[in-house]
Amino acid sequence: MCVHTCTNVFVIAYMLFCNTQDLQTILNILYILNELLTVGGGRRVGVFVSKGGTGILLQLVLSGSKESPPSEELMLQLHSLLAKVGPKDRKFGVKARLNGALNVTVNLLKQNLQNHKLLLPCLQVLRVYSSNSVNAVSLGKNGVLELMFKIIGPYSKKNTSLLKVSLDTLGALLKSKTNARRAVDRAHVPVLLYIYQDWHRNDTRHRHMLIRKGVLGCLKNITNIKLGRKAFIDADGMRILYNTSTVSTVTKLPKTQSCLCPRVWLPVDDVVDESDDNDDVETENDTENEEEDKDHHNDDIETDINKLRPKETNSRPFEELKIYERFFLELSEDFQVMQDRHPFVSLVESSTSKNQINIVTFHFKTSDSPIHCRQSKIYYLKYIYIYSTSQKFGHTYSFQDHDGCCDHSQVRPQPGQPPLLAGGVAARQGGGAEETLAEEWAEEEGGEGAVLEVPDTALLLPLHDPDLYVEMVKSTRSVPQYSEVAYPDYFGHVAPTFREHILERVYGVQRTKIFQDIERLIHPNDILDKVVYDLDIQSCPVIDDGESLKFNSQFESGNLRKAIQARKFEYDLVLNSDINSNHYHQWFYFEVSGMRVGAPYRFNIINCEKSNSQFNYGMQVLMYSVQEAISGRPRWVRTGTDICYYKNHFSRSSIAAGGQKGKSYYTMTFSMTFNHKDDVCYFAYHYPYTYSTLKMHLQKLEALRTPQIYMRQDILCETLGGNSCPLLTITAMPESTSNDQICQFRNRPLVFLSSRVHPGETNASWVMKGTLEFLMGSSPLAHSLREAYIFKIVPMLNPDGVVNGNHRCSLSGEDLNRQWQSPSPELHPTIYHTKSLLQYLAAIQRAPLVFCDYHGHSRKKNVFMYGCSLKETVWQTNISATSCELHEDLGYRTLPKILSQTAPAFSMASCSFVVERSKEATARVVVWREIGVQRSYTMESTLCGCDQGKYKGLQIGTRELEEMGAQFCVALLRLKRLTSPLELRNHAHLLDVESDLIETRCKVSRSDTCTHRGYYSKQELTLEIYTETIIFECETN
């Protein structure tokens, strides 16, 4: 039956209800409606609700209750219908309370406790009523809680459906903290535990799991308050549930473990709100539960059309913007003297250098006490000499005091002394005196010196130079004044040639891990609870007794605040929050040493914040082994087994949770066995890419510059921490100084790229590295690309956050990608000046053709884009708009479409072009709306891997990320052809570019097939590209 027919039936039924008092006629209509709604499902119910059907049924309940006695059949049919209609009506609970039907149902329930036929639909309706918090409190006061405990009971084969609905209703009532306290006061917690034990003991064939689950749900809701958790522990609830769960693999205890465990604070000294200890305060809102809201539209989508239209005028006067002309010398260059140009020009002093701001820092971040206390003898030797092909250098380790701490006099760097490697080894330094001194030290110690050979990776890593990296570190400023260099950043990373598949998690792993956590509460005497690393102890964070692992995170981009040994081979790890912030615990990068070969270590990061993670869907942590590196394999590899991510029992303070109370942290856990004795290993959330690495890469890229390449590096501004923010300009030099060539050079369209506004999204920097290497390359495609565009690139928007190991914020404690609407020149200098560059371009009518901000995504797979579209945003809402208001060029889809055809990791299906309110201050939306750039994007790269295309089932690596950066450039070339005037599309130069694109794809196919990736053959790939090109051009034309 169509919707129109159903509507007519509902209208007729409404008229009959209004015009008849005959009981049998009303019953017949109810029978028909019941049949219609039962067969039709949710759509018919929705139509019925929209026509006011709920109000009619509630009115019939009220009028029927006035009869003496009320008709049992009428009440049965009415409540059966209400049970179907209620969940679809968001205001059902409010309507029932105001109408008076709520009290009618309660009275009916009290009078028919033995009438199971009528009791079942009444309970079903009561369950829906209870989803409203005000109703739940009212029902509790009216004694409904006690009625539920009269219905539920020990194991019985009779009336199991009734018992299941009763438990669901009780669970809904207990979501109210007032009712939870009432249940505790009336000693209902031991009763529920007894009922659960009885059903567990007798339901041996697990036919009534829903009943046991319902009891657990009631206990979970009671333990949402402190009194409930205390009552649960006092009743020995944790041991009862643990014992029953270990016997039965069917019981879903891990799902409720975090709520049933006693809440505790993290084992660190943090500022907490005193009111956090009182979580029993009832917050009564006259709204339905969250589950019902899930079926409705996204309220975050922007619905104001005026905010979805580009701004007509520039918000800043041109005189104020004119100072940024110095960053665009290429737009006025006459090239009268064609000579090799120095890459570093136009160094502009930031406004922040004149108005320095005192930053309040937390934890270990101090400006007057450099932290370089390290445990000595990583290799159980007193010296390590670093050899290169031309010279040999050495430096002493830090020696131990008798109390297990470090002797600071041995490790505090003196003026001019190079940074230490994180193991205590001095970085490479010049001069022969050090070489002689190193040999003397080795002789004095009776030959105990060890040789550490630096792997020669010059051929594999042309942009990496350990000596240059150390020089870059010297000029990098950090809040803790780091004096050490991590081995992976020093040695470099060569992408492995083998596949790294997305990890398939073994069934039951999370259950096992949670049971091990619960055992800590049941058997606390078995737990060591020994702190082995603590940055809050500034004098000596490393605590070594020779039996535990040694940790370190005091190097650039490092993040680990505390390590606690829980069991012999198990460690709890606490991450640092972003500087000047109380949250954003996600990025980690730390060193581990002193391990035993083959021992089953377990690491638990216990203060993660996000509710879910790709660690639950196949992502692994990254590990770098120094022993592997000095053996010729310097690389980060995916590692770890039994990886899972789940809510734990550590409470987040309301300060750290944005004012919300009752929030918990999450645990990311993984197991690890080490293969090398006396190894030094590093673990990271994703492939690290430090600020010093960027500076090194930019200097190495300059060496690739040929006379045909125009490359200029400016200092856009200085950050709060005193680090410079580089701005790159890359294009092709004009072929001659003729007016035509100079004019063509100046009038090339601009492409503006930025990256790494969020420090923890290191994959964005690897994508940017691929883009920069392609742009500076010598291939015909790179040359064509430089001739087609002028590139303005800010490769790292948040240097301070990267240096100090933040995940999302700058030193101001703010997310810089939420400051684009009104950036402060003092607090957000990189955003302020980058936006000013774009505003200047808009003012001179040279707005970029493309703006793209590179990001990383922690919860999705593949690479994809977010763009901005007026039409697609309006389509997702109920806004009424005329076709004139929605007029929009669909060119914003062109670049993502090209990428979906050329880049193996890119997924068009994951792209979105909807503008949301929460994203209105991001770069993408502000550049689209205020600068007027139609093709304004955020390009998100997965931290995990791909679930489509040629990389399906594989974790993403640096090779794939750099490839994505190069493919973005290739896509810009095809975009150039598609956006050129029609008479120029068949120009020989652009046709040659298209031919080169195809040929390059084929060459990549052949070479990468040898390495494992399984590309198509040349013939297959050529046919695919030609087919995609024809289809795409048909679509775009």
Structure characteristics:
1037 residues, alpha/beta, eight-stranded mixed β-sheet, six-stranded mixed β-sheet, 38 helices, globular
Describe the structure.
The protein is α/β, with parallel strands linked by helices and 1037 residues long. Strand 18 (709-718) and strand 19 (724-732) form a beta hairpin. It contains 38 helices and 24 strands. The radius of gyration is 33 Å and the shape is globular. The chain has an 8-stranded mixed β-sheet with strand order 1-18-19-21-20-22-24-23, sandwiched between helices. A 6-stranded mixed β-sheet has the order 7-9-10-12-16-15. The chain has a 5-stranded antiparallel β-sheet with strand order 8-11-17-13-14. 40% of the residues lie in helices and 13% in strands.
Question: What order do the helices and strands come in, and which of them pair?
Answer:
Elements lengths: L2 H17 L3 H18 L1 H9 L2 H13 L6 H14 L6 H8 L1 H11 L4 H14 L3 H9 L2 H8 L8 H14 L3 H9 L2 H15 L6 H14 L3 H9 L2 H11 L5 H8 L29 H4 L24 H4 L22 E4 L3 H4 L28 E5 L4 E5 L11 H4 L8 E2 L10 H13 L5 E4 L12 H9 L9 E2 L1 H5 L17 H14 L7 E5 L15 E3 L9 E6 L2 E5 L14 E5 L7 E8 L12 E5 H5 L5 E4 L1 E11 L12 E9 L7 E5 L6 H13 L5 E10 L5 E9 L6 H8 L3 E6 L7 H13 L4 H9 L1 E5 L4 H5 L25 H15 L6 E8 L5 E4 L3 H6 L18 H9 L20 H9 L3 E8 L15 H22 L8 H24 L6 H19 L1
Parallel strand pairs: 1-18, 2-5, 4-6, 10-12, 20-21, 20-22, 22-24
Antiparallel strand pairs: 2-3, 7-9, 8-11, 9-10, 11-17, 12-16, 13-14, 13-17, 15-16, 18-19, 19-21, 23-24
Helix pairs in contact: 1-2, 1-3, 2-5, 4-5, 4-6, 5-8, 7-8, 8-11, 10-11, 11-14, 13-14, 13-16, 14-17, 16-25, 23-27, 29-36, 30-36, 34-36, 34-38, 36-37, 37-38
